[in-house]
Structure formats: structure tokens, C-alpha cells
Design a protein that fits this description.
single chain, mainly alpha, Farnesyl Diphosphate Synthase, two-stranded antiparallel sheet, globular
């Protein structure tokens, strides 16, 4: 990540490290500090800070509400990892693996409460609008997760349904982070709406990139199990399109792998990845990722603020587009 963002990341890291989430019982609070110390990209609070800078320069004054977004995001990860039975998060054991599922559920609940505590740091006159914005986003994230789980029991998921699911599960939180920063900076509603559109578009592109990296990334860089989506038969953009495009023997082999209950994980990942390569799924996904980022850039360009102010947001979006982990 560019040096442009290091001051923001340093302050966010310091603020998270110093936040007194609680001490007793340690089983409740240690998992919170554990998952937050794993780091991650911190892209959601970064987007809030960068959006705030479109209107004001004192970005350190909104560290707490920006942190609220990060705490909420990690709460969702803690619970999602339980639902997905994920063993690894950011290269380390997930909370429910290091402790147990009950602790992960309860610590996640506490994180959600702490996120609202952090939001209370905003100006009182803005608080009702901020809480409404936050709640709407939180419910949409839950809707996206439920739809994603519903997909596990379906074999007829369409590309359009999948794109809407990832908009809800992933992209709306990026959009809300930007709207939060813009609102706290006093930007007009039309600009905060454009910021939200920018966030949602690059958010969908970001998740599609995640789908792609799950299959084609370097395991050491990715921080999660490469091929995990293939092993779990997860309905991703890649699999849905492969099922739609594959014909004849290729279709038979792919459906056979999906149906297998007992298999060698590495062999399955290798075989399905080969089918993706054969069907040019990687190139198709790259094209759609580019389309979504282009739509996001267009929304950002439409905001009537000098390009010099918008440059850090454009640079950050470029980083998300070109990332390899």
C-alpha cells in the first residue's frame, strides 16, 4: 500500500490498540483484541477518513466513528467464520478455532455493542442520521449473509442474484463508510450519495477480486486457504459462470466434482481450477471487475470537488483494483 495512507493506518492502529474494550472476563474480550490485532486492510475506516477529507482536514477528529465501522466489520467476520467453518483468517486461526464457537458468538455480540459505543462520538445533531445509516447497512449485511447461506441449498443461482448478494454482504459497508465520512464532513447529500455509489461499485469489484484470488492467488500472500471456495462448492461468480458455460464432458466433470462427498482437496482444487482456465473464467471475471471499478470511478468523478481532494480516494481504489492478496 502506498505511503500516502501510512499516517491514517498508523493512527487507526494506535486508536484500536488503545481502545479499552474491556478486561473481565478475559474470554469475552481477548478474542476481540485478537481479531483486531490481526490487522487486515482497514479499508473501511480508511474510506471513511478519506471521504471526510473531501470537506475537512481534521480527519483525526473522526477516528472513533471510523473505528466503529472496523469493529462492526470484524464482528461480521467472527460470526461468518463460524457459519463457513473457516479455519484461517488473515493467516492465523479463526476465533472459533483458537477458542470455541460459543466464545466467538458472544465476543462477536460484544463487538457489535462496542461499535455503537464508538459511534456516540459524533456530533449530537448528526447522531440520529448516522445511527439510521449504520442500522440500514447492518441489516443489509445480514440480508446478504442469509442469501449467501440460502445459495448453499440451491443449484440454480444466477449471476444477477450473486451480484446482488455480494452488493449486500460486502459492498454496502464500503458505501456506508464513505457516506459516513462525507456526512461528518458536512458534504451535501448529492455528494454523499455519489460517495455511496462509488463505494458500492468498487465494493462489488473488490469481492469479485476476492473470488478470483481465492482460486488464483499465492497462498503466502492471500492469508486464507487458497481454493477454499472450490473445496466448499461455494457459489462464487467463477463457479456460477462455469456451470453456465460448460458443455459436454467438461460440464460432466465439473458437476461430478461438485457432487463428490469424499475427495482429495488438492486434487479437487487443481481439477476445478483447470476447468476455469479452459473456460476463460479468469478473463471473464477480470472484465466484470474492471466494469464495476469503472462505474465507481465515474461516480467519484461526478462529485463537484477539486480532483486534488479526490486523488487519495482514487489512489486507494486503484490499490484495491490491482491488489494480489
Amino acid at each position: 500500500m502506498s505511503n500516502t495512507f501510512q499516517p491514517y493506518l498508523a493512527k487507526l492502529g494506535e486508536a484500536i490498540e488503545n481502545e479499552p474494550f474491556g478486561q473481565h472476563p478475559k474470554e469475552l474480550y481477548e478474542p476481540i483484541r485478537y481479531i483486531l490485532k490481526l490487522g487486515g486492510k482497514r479499508l473501511r475506516p480508511m474510506l471513511a477518513l478519506l471521504a471526510y477529507q473531501l470537506g475537512k482536514d481534521d480527519w483525526e477528529s473522526i477516528l472513533k466513528p471510523a473505528m466503529a465501522v472496523e469493529v462492526f466489520h470484524n464482528f461480521t467476520l467472527m460470526h461468518d467464520d463460524i457459519m463457513d467453518e473457516a479455519p484461517i483468517r488473515r493467516g492465523q486461526p479463526t476465533v472459533h478455532k483458537r477458542w470455541d464457537e460459543n466464545i466467538a458468538i458472544l465476543s462477536g455480540d460484544a463487538m457489535l455493542v462496542k461499535a455503537y459505543d464508538l459511534l456516540l462520538d459524533v456530533e449530537p445533531k448528526l447522531l440520529p442520521a448516522i445511527i439510521h445509516m449504520f442500522n440500514k447497512c447492518a441489516v443489509e449485511v445480514c440480508e446478504g449473509q442469509q442469501i449467501d447461506m440460502n445459495f448453499e441449498r440451491r443449484s440454480d443461482v444466477t449471476v444477477e442474484e450473486y451480484l446482488e448478494m455480494i452488493r449486500l454482504k460486502t459492498a454496502v459497508l464500503l458505501g456506508m463508510s464513505l457516506r459516513l465520512g462525507g456526512t461528518l464532513a458536512g458534504l451535501p447529500q448529492k455528494d454523499t450519495e455519489l460517495l455511496c455509489t462509488f463505494g458500492e461499485k468498487i465494493g462489488v469489484g473488490f469481492q469479485l477480486k476476492d473470488d478470483l484470488l481465492d482460486v488464483f492467488s499465492d497462498k503466502k500472500k492471500f492469508g486464507k486457504q487458497v481454493g477454499g471456495d472450490i473445496i466448499a462448492n461455494k457459489k462464487t461468480f467463477l463457479l456460477i459462470n462455469a456451470l453456465k458455460i460448460a458443455e459436454g464432458e467438461t460440464a460432466r466433470i465439473l458437476t461430478d466434482w461438485i457432487a463428490k462427498k469424499d475427495f482429495d482437496k488438492e486434487q479437487k482444487v487443481k481439477a476445478v481450477t483447470a476447468i476455469y482456465e479452459q473456460l476463460a473464467i479468469r478473463q471473464l471475471t477480470d472484465k466484470v471487475i474492471q466494469d464495476y471499478f469503472d462505474q465507481g470511478y465515474q461516480a467519484l468523478a461526478s462529485i463537484d470537488i477539486p480532483d486534488s481532494r479526490k486523488a487519495p480516494l482514487k489512489e486507494f481504489a486503484d490499490y484495491l483494483y490491482h491488489r494480489d492478496k
